[in-house]
Amino acid sequence: MKAMIxxxxxxxxxxxxxxxxxxxxxxxxxAALIEHHLRSLSAAGVRxxxxxxxxxxxxxxxxxxxxxxxxxxIEYSREQTPLExxxxxxxxxxxxxxxxxxxxNGDVWTDYPFAASLxxxxxxxxxxxxxxxxxxxQHPLGDFxxxxxxxxxxxxxxxxxxxxxxxxxxxxSFFAAMRPCKMPLRPLLDASIAQRSLGGEFYNGVWEDVGTxxxxxxxxxxxxxxx
Length: 227
Fold this sequence. Notes:
Elements lengths: L2 E4 L20 E2 L2 E2 H12 L3 E6 L3 H8 L8 E6 L5 H13 L4 E5 L2 E3 L3 H5 L9 E6 L11 E2 L5 E2 L9 E8 L15 H9 L3 E5 L4 E3 L3 H14 L1
């Protein structure tokens, strides 16, 4: 299975750190955020990775290179300006092939074993399956509901749900109705929910959205203490 790491964003909330360093190259626990993913993907058995790049793209390409040091083969999907999540994935489809592929946000940290998602098999009519986690303090209501059969639903405005972990398995057909454009992922997720074709799994391990300098420092301190 191929995997895609989303690394094209500017990282507005991380400024001024991201003025000169792309967010995926910020370090926690002695390694760049993206390196944690590359190591974990390689350990799980992934051999081909696509990384989309835009903001300070040359730094990411120079740092990751061909991926050989992790036992990976890396290709790059270049965006002149960031196309957001759905737009970026759609642009990379020619590099991702015809089979379902794994997508990982470059700005999260987790101890999730990617081998678990490599074992996922999309059910009949299921176009994508997302990984969910408990709601962090900065996002107390979550994003969606996840029922006992593993189908994703919309939550009411004041109804707590679960948080999308930024990790998912997608069939290329999930993006079939799109045209090339800048586009977030949420409209496609909502459309898939309406068709009952969006599945989910819950993970109860460690996961962090490294969205601000404060959360970056807190995660770095926690990982250093753990070592």
